[in-house]
Structures are given as structure tokens and as C-alpha cells.
Amino acid sequence: MVRDARPWTHAALFGCLWGCLELSLGTVLHLGRVPLKGLVMGSLGLVCLVTLRRLQPRPGVCLIAGMVAVFLKVFAMGGLYPGPVIGIAGESVIVELIFTATMSRAAGAIIGGALALALNPLQMVLMTWVVAGPEAFRAVVNGIQAAAARIGLAGLDGQSILIALMVVSGTIGGFVGGASWLLAGRVLRRLGRAP
Amino acid sequence: MSRRLGWLLATLAVISIFVGRPLAPWVGFGLALAAALAVDRQVLGVVFRFGLLLVILFSSAVAGAAVVWSSDWSSGVQVAAAMVLRLLVLVIITTLLARNIDAEAILRAGEKLGMDRLGLTLGLALNVMPQLVEATRHVVMAWRVRRRSVHARAPSVLQLPEVLLAHVARIADEAAAAAALRGHAALLQRPVAVAAATPVVVATGRPGGGKTTAVDDLIEDLRSRGRRVVGILQPGTFHDGRKVGFRVRDLSTGEEAELARMVTREEGEHGTRFQFSDEGFDLARRAIARSRADDVLVVDELGPLELRGQGHMPAVERALAVPGLAGVVIVVRSQLVPALLAALEVDDAVVIDVTAAGGTARLLRALRLRPHPSGR
Q1: Using CA atoms, how far apart are residues B171 and A17, in angstroms rounded to an integer?
Q2: What is the ipTM of this complex?
Q3: Residue B109, in any domain of the structure
């Protein structure tokens, strides 16, 4: 008797794809100190998660894919900087919860994408505090405030800047989530599985 | 024993990263070194390489410089030193993991912890990595061959992710078939158990061919013979002659509710073209739960949602386990018959095309009903 193992093999494969992207492109961007690397990698992860959920709309698959990607990221030689690992885990949990709550609809991709990427600046702040310590964290906040003052936003406190960054990231995440949903639709049609 | 101690030290080293005390990075570094010596000494040779150390020093220097700029020299040096140590701890532990854990170890750990499915999934991900890399290489190569000039390549670059994702899905399908053949039970859906000696009849036929009508006739016939029929019917709802959704009817009470409304593909729920109503699912669950011994259970119909274990399936699963049911009639589209038969733990289900002539009569015969307790 052949029963359906596809949800879990899809989760393994899409998690593996995400993990491979993190291992290769993610490591390059991280070591190259490329700006917005978290946003780029978060968006690629979102494409993997949304496509997976549209192909296999079964609760739990995004979570498993996230665990696979975390697992592979941990294997990156010298790449266990905890930031991306926490980012991947957080993104998969958020996307899973939102998709489950919205019954795997397009709205889930947009809301999940927005929330997942909005987490990015928060994660950056948290990891700076954990790895570099509170002194370095304060230095980064001072630097951001100085940069904000130069573009005419003097007097903004760290919290306001963080919220502004989260809103911008979230908006981008919403767009990426929506685009990923459409891309997943094209993948479904290419596979001949469109409902 | 020393390996176990080594892994314990490695865990403590990772925990030390999150401790804010000034001595914590030094303690963590010491623990990580001890762990490497206990588990795998060669890790140290891999970690202490010029290139890697340069990257760590550069990252820490940037953080230190930021602190010097915002406060003073001594704090900057302290922060940079702590960061060097924390990054070294992370690199040592990662390398330890990477060199000592393979797919087999993950499978064993998964089994030990009672998480077979996660273990298999992680093992599969590790094993399939080379195939994934190869698939990516083929996709890019095919794209370059088909679009020889840079001018022609530019617009088609957006197709690359689409093709790659489709390839990944195909590899996942192949992996699912392989998992089934190898009997990896943890990856497979648990089959739905049917109570012994309950005749199961699968009523199928082409879409729009009159499956629900045939089953409705069967229900009338059974009732005229004094049989109690429980379960659900899902008549379609139509607008301008076009099917726009489904209602669900409780066969015991005649109560009805809207179950599904057809929407665009983008708005559909659970990967379908429908939006579902909780009220409809609740009514169906209550209707199916009325199954008792000597009843005929009718479920019209099970779709892809149910075959993934969602929708009506949990209620159907409970009902099929009721001992002494006189018979079960399940309606599915013809293309879902193999998936339904695979999902049920039953040896001799009868499949009948009810849209062909005499469908209702054949359904009745296939049920092989025992004489009714009332004698009718």
C-alpha cells in the first residue's frame, strides 16, 4: 500500500533548498558585510516557505522546513553566528502560524511575509546585544541615531528608529510574500497541479 | 565516556555565549577547547586557520571600533576581545557538529527521542543535497544554452526560480515514492482503520455525472427498506447554471448549511478553489458522529482536503471505527480513488462508477446488507 509521504519530503526538500541558499549565498553576504543581507535572505526563505505551503497545504510543513534549514545552517563551516539561525527559526514559526490561521490562503503569504521580515531588525538588535555585548549595542544605537540626524531625523530615540525599520521591512515582506504566492501558482501550473 | 563529556562541555560553551559576565567568554572558550579535545582534536586544526581568524578579528575590530567611537578605548578593547572569544566558541562547536553528525546519526537520534519523522526528514535533507545542487546546475545550464545571447537571457531570468522550484518539487515526489517503497512508516500518513466486517463501497464517476443524485436514490431505497442512514450529502449550489459551491446536509435531521464557496485560485483555502465555512464543517462533523451499529454511513464527498487528513476526515476516521456498521458508502472523484483506497485500511472495498447505467442498483448490491434487525 502506497500512502502519501509527500508533505514531509517536500518539507525536507524545500528546507534543504533554503538551507543551501543560507550556506552559500548567506555566508557570502554575511562575510562580505553586505547591507540588507537579512532582508535578502529572509525574502529567499519566504519564497521557499510560501511555495512549499502552496504545493502541500498541510499544517506543520513550514515548521519542519525551517528546522531543516536551521539544521543545515548550523553545519555551515564557521557559520554558526546565531543571528541567521534565530532568524530562520523565527521566520518559519511565524509563516507556519499565519498560514495555519488563514487556512493556507494568499492573505497568509502576505501577512506572514510582512511579520516574518518585520522581525529582521529586531533580530539584528538582539544578536548585536548578545554577541557583541551591551556596550557595542549602545554604540550601534548611537551610530544609527547619528545617521538619522544627518538625514534630518534628529532627536529620534532608538525605539522609534527600530519601529520604523520594522515597518519598512514588514512592507517589503508583504510584497515578497504576495509575489511568492504568485510564483508558487506558476510552479503549480508548471507541475500540472493547479486546482 | 570522554565523548559524552565532550558534548556536555560543548553545550555549556554555547550557553556561556549568552551569559553577560566579563569572565563568561573566557570560560566559554576554555569549555569549547576542552570539548574539541575530548570529541575530535582535528577540529582545532580546521578552526585555527589564517583566513578564518582574519574574518573573526575583522568582525570583532569593527564592533570594538564602534564602542571606542561611542565611549572609550578600554571598553572597545574589552568588547572586541569578548567578541573574538565568542565567535571562536561558535566556530569550534559548529565544526564539531559538522564533522561528527551525519544522516545515520540523525536517524538514530530521532528514533531515540521518539521523533522518527523529524529524524527522517533531516536525514533526507542531508542525503538529497548533492541532487539539489546538481538540479540547480542543470537548470542554469539549460537556461544558458537556450538563451545564448545576454540580451535574450535578461527577460527570462525571472523564470529561473520557477523552474528550480518545480525541479525541487519533482525531486520531493521521487523521494516520497522512495520512502514508501522503503517502508519509512514515520513519513507516511497513518491509514484510517475500518472496523472489521464493515462493507465499504466507493462510489465514483466523472465530475458533474450525477454521483450525488445516485447516492440520494440509494438513500431513499435504503430507507424504504427500514435502514437508518446517517452521514452527509453535499449537493452543489448553482448560479446561472454554473456550480458555485457546495452545501452540506445532515442525513439524519435534514439540516443544511453552506460548506464551500468557489472563489479565485488566489483566494482559495487549503490549496483548493474554495473558501470553506466552519458552520458547514461543524454540521458535517455532528452528522457523521451519529453513526451507530446497524447504520449505513454515507459520506458525500471526500476531496483532496480530506485525503490530507483535514476537513471531514477526523470525523470519518472515528465513524469508520464504530463496530457493527451495516455498510459505508464514500463518494469521491474518479481521480482520487487510488488515494482514498491507499488511505483506508481495508482489504476488499468495492469501487462502483455510479454515473454509468444502473449505478444505484449496483451500489445496493455491493453493500451486501445483512438482514435488518427489525426483520425487514
Answers
A1: 11
A2: 0.87
A3: no
